[in-house]
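QA checklist item 7 of 12: single-chain prediction sanity check.
[x] sequence parsed
[x] length recorded as 609
[x] structure emitted
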Amino acid sequence: MNKTILEVTENIINRSKASREIYLNRVKEASSKEVNRSKVGCSNLAHTIAPMSEVEKEAMSNMETPNIAIVTSYNDMLSAHEPFSVYPSLIKRTLLNEGATAQVASGVPAMCDGVTQGFEGMELSLFSRDNIAMGTAIGLSHNVYDGAIYLGVCDKIVPGLLIGALSFGHLPAIFMPAGPMPSGISNKKKALVRQEYAQGKVDKDALFKVESASYHSSGTCTFYGTANSNQMLLEMMGLQMPNSSFVNANTQLRDELTQEASRKLLNLTEYKNNFTPIADIVTEKSFVNAIVGLMATGGSTNHTIHLIAMARAAGITLNWDDFNMISEVTPLLCKLYPNGTADVNHFRDAGGMSVVIHELIEAGLVHEDVNTIAGFGLKNYIVEPSLNDNKLVFSKGATVSRDKDIISSVDAPFSSEGGITLLEGNIGRSIIKTSALKEEHLYIKAPAMVFSTQEELKDAFKNNELNKDFVAVVKFQGPKANGMPELHGLLPSLGVLQDKGYKVAIITDGRMSGASGKVPSAIHLVDEAAEGGMISRIENGDIICLDVKNKKLKLEVKAEEFIKRSVKATDLSKNRYNYGRNLFSNVRSTTSNAEEGATIFDIIGKERG
């Protein structure tokens, strides 16, 4: 094993010792050697089985076979989740054939960041994660389930489902994706037309035509953003069927994988004498593996927040130093949009997660000795699913990339370090995605231009006020200010300026989309402006140095002058009402900062505050 990976793992174990012990004791207390519904009263059980068929009622009444919860994030507005409409019936039929039953325990919200991007609804996006966790817990609280299946794909949904699942750590769990849509128009073409629209070179009809050719059917969007990073993480953590994440939606192979996953979960319950609750799978080692996977694939920066929140639900404390140390020793193995031109369908065809996991195991960069839903050992994920005579088979997976332009090797990586870096300096700590940055964009020293809203920056671009070198400081975008919306909508304008030869960058206490790429963006800055962070004292014209190679973010203002400045407040009242934002006022006030997971839950599941 790599010495740094071992060191980080040991740091996490020692840091988490007390809280992890509390968590595991609670899991042990909740565990049962009998089906959980046997503990409820007759009236309670009657309510449970009332809507079921006679065959299901008989199976439920005998108290001998498991009843499985289905927690679904289905809606037909979100393309990645639309295929889930038929999953519950398929799962129920599959399990009933095995003598078990299943019920939809709860439906949780699933918002599409692609729809809300740049608008007021995005201010609920990050908070939806903890809402999903609570909705998951409410469904499972009926306590008549012996395992749970989680249906989710996209940005906040999978992290929320996993936080909820870990709060029921005594139950076996498995996650099922819907799979990506087929490839549409190239991501490069889409990005180009977006920039042309920002410049007024094409009209809205032309832009819409291109966008519709990109997002064109049911299934996950094909770029490697947060949704597809979620799927990678679930495999790295052993919670999803091996090398299954990027099998296309609405195909026979996808259906076969869903049925096999249902049977796999059944085998993790007491029914098959192979009891493996999720608390036995999700450990400090599995979170280290997840971070390594994030760095090796150039995944979404959103997971420098979500992984911390997910770990806390299991009594495990992560911080950005862990991410930074792992990034320093993890080579970048993948080139996927926005880090390249390929999409996840091309990634799958090049060998997908089988190649990535094999490379990481061989290099000693991940813990192979971990529990997974596929058995003990991460090596169980070096396989490839396919159909043989219409039956699902898992054969030996690719260990060498079929396309070296998409998946490389540890010996010849695209970069010697991972795709995400920690920046530190006199205005705080922040995260920057480096995997899509060109060499000439790794350093910028320029005057600040300060904005308090996205709209202010967009207006300045339209008014031709940004044709120069500058660092855009976009403040009051953190969780306490306005829910930490993604600021991806700013990138077409800044990309235009960058293409003109200007040196531009962003510093913000907000987030960027998992699809963000070529503009250097120091994000998730802590402390945020709403907490009086240093970002709130930056003024127009202040010289800022963003130095990725030396991992520095520095404001070049004399300390004695800077400390005298008062916090530059802004009116946040308009972020407090309409579009449901008033319902989340308590969430804004109690949420932690980005490095603590931007969550309302503390390390052992209590509310903050």
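[x] summary fact logged: Confidence is low (pLDDT under 50) at residues 605-609.
[ ] second reviewer sign-off
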